[in-house]
Amino acid sequence: MLIRNLLSSSHIPSLRCFSSSAPCLLKVGDTLKQTRTFADEDLMEYAKVTYDSNPIHFDSEAARNAGFEDRLVHGTLVASMIPHIISSHFPGAVYLSQSVHFKLPVYIGEEIAAEMEAINIRANKKRYIAKLKIRCFKNGELLVLDGEAMAILPSLVVEQVHR
């Protein structure tokens, strides 16, 4: 199931690379994106791993009683799209931190577009520490979360995701 979800995600790099033969290097201002639609089974699998069985994720009535339209996707499951972008483009990267502000609820079946933008990159020995602006949107424009993340990248070469 995980493999299918990873394969069904779409990755949309937004990088300034002009030659198909030269490797694309991450620069400040570059953005990497991914879209994903969360399904019931994603919530079930996530709850098994995290032990988060809050009824607002599994019971429509409980979600409505809490003031939402329907069952919610776990906010941290949505936020997990960012480390997935990093690991798929920078194999061997180490995720250091993530601060997230949840703005709007995400409901099952909504397409979410996650993006990370490099806002600072500094060399550290033979690796790089990247500070990233992170955001997720639904319906192409509604901000559902934002924040910052930091990662140690083994290289600035952006690996192309093959589907």
Core attributes:
single chain; 163 residues; alpha+beta; Thiol Ester Dehydrase, Chain A; 6-stranded antiparallel sheet; 6 strands; elongated; disordered N terminus
Protein architecture, described:
With 163 residues, the chain is an alpha+beta fold. It has one domain (2-16, 25-153): Thiol Ester Dehydrase, Chain A. The chain is 23% helix and 36% strand. The chain has 5 helices and 6 strands. The chain has helices at 2-8, 40-50, 60-65, 75-79, 81-89, and strands at 10-14, 31-37, 94-102, 111-124, 127-138, 142-153. A hairpin with a 2-residue loop joins β4 (111-124) and β5. The radius of gyration is 17 Å and the shape is elongated. The two termini are 16 Å apart. Residues 1-13 have low confidence and may be disordered.
